[in-house]
Design goal:
By secondary structure, the chain is mainly α. It has five helices and no strands.
Length: 92
């Protein structure tokens, strides 16, 4: 059986998942803030991932999923799940 090699993309410079990981506490704070809107939270997440210079298909797909979020819970879950998957990424 072939052994699977995993990477932790939350530690890779240039990855949007690293940016999400580093700002997950702030994202959670916005999620829990009753005065913060869905639009504000989306814009914040977009600002967070902006510095990620690796502009692969995954980042574009994430932005598409983010645009499809209609609640702060959806946005937080998307960010949380992205970070969790990035910690155990299996390269193709």
């Amino acid at each position: 059986m072939k052994e699977r090699f995993t990477m932790n993309l939350t530690r890779q410079n240039g990855c949007y998942s690293k940016e999400l990981f580093e700002h997950l506490d702030e994202i959670k704070f916005i999620y829990e803030d009753n005065y913060a809107s869905v639009r504000y939270m989306k814009n914040y997440v977009l600002e967070v991932i902006e510095p990620a210079w690796i502009d692969k298909v995954a980042k574009k797909r994430f932005i598409g999923y983010l645009n499809d979020c209609y609640s702060k819970r959806d946005i937080y879950n998307l960010c949380w799940n992205t970070v969790q998957k990035a910690m155990k990424y299996i390269p193709a």
